[in-house]
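Suppose a colleague, Dr. K., hands you the sequence of a protein chain of 246 amino acids and asks what its three-dimensional shape might be. Before reaching for any lab equipment, you can write down a predicted structure in token form. Begin with the sequence itself:
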Amino acid sequence: MEKNLPAREDTAKQAGKTGKYLKYAIGEIMLVVIGILIALQINNWNENRKQLIKVQQNYHEILADLDRERAHANFMINKFEKQRDAYKKYLESFNGEKISRKKMYSMLLQLNMEGLPINSNSSIIESLQNSGEIVLIPQALRNKLINLRRQHQKITVDESLDNRARMGVTERLSMLIGARDLEQRLENQKDLKAELRIEENANDIILALEAVQDWMHFSESKSIRQLKELVDEINVVEELVLEEIE
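The predicted structure, expressed as tokens, is then:
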């Protein structure tokens, strides 16, 4: 029996060594796993940090875009309101002294007849949609931005359609009146003026000028209302963006 003791001791020593190796191997594996988890955590943190920086950058670009849109809208409102004030004074003149046809014609020529296009200065919203980065913006704010873009597009389309209708009247007018300064140029050309027989078209010219101004009044009054609503919405969206930045 005593002869078997060394063999048992060798077996025990071997088992002990194997246990130590297993513990060591398990420890190494755990260290590797912990290292991988830490690396993943650091990578996720870096990605989240990059994403946060990008979102903040987008917010500041959106604010700059909103500021440009508001400035342009207010500029257009101011232009349209000045033209509507001039037209209002023209209409009020009929409540005063007697107006001759020549005077009426002269007053109409002093009013603006050119339509002003309402272009958009916005680019960031479309850029975010195209790049897919708009999904980084909270849903509620994202919907506000998209609706704001649609609101501006509707104003632009409406104004374009109104201008097209006005142009139809203006084209007919141009065939009757020629250039706007033609009558002034003909002041010293009595014979030529008589030959052109412009006076015979005076009534049609005045009615056409009235029609142009009526279209412009309808279109620009509507644009003023729509642009003021747009400015109000821009202010709301701006507040939401500032809240996200804070």
